[in-house]
Amino acid sequence: MRESLTEVIVGAAVVVAAAGFLGYTAQATGYVQSSGDMVLTASFRSIEGVSVGTDVRLAGVKIGSVTGMDLNPETYRADTVLTLVSDIPIPDDSSAVVASEGLLGGNYIELVPGGSFDNFESGAEIVDTQGAVSLLQLLLTYVGGGTSTE
């Protein structure tokens, strides 16, 4: 009887720990958003290397994540949904740039603040975007002497 009680307590502790890890993972990757978050949309020409859960950074500090991506069949652009913490005001003339952590690092979305006195409201669209730059395309341009075949 005493051994079965111990097994039940240990099993319950394992289930609680697993649920805690699952909750932390969902929040850290951006799959769960709190009610106070601000949601912005942006349309990119190319979001190569970006996926759902990718960081959104401002001055190198993570302030949110990518929570949705879809191809717009009319414009052939990648429409993204960015979920940011709401306590940081973002000027409404800011731009979103797909940046790289280095030669072998991953990509992330960097917000470059503008100079406007008005800020984005939740649901607004970032109009000024810059897509990912292909490393292969840059290398081919460098090897080709800077000439383009397009």
From TrEMBL:
Residues 40-114 form the Mce/MlaD domain. GO terms for biological process: phospholipid transport. InterPro entries: ABC_MlaD, Mce/MlaD, MlaD_Phospholipid_Transporter. Transmembrane segments: none annotated. It holds the Pfam family MlaD. This is Putative phospholipid ABC transporter-binding protein MlaD.
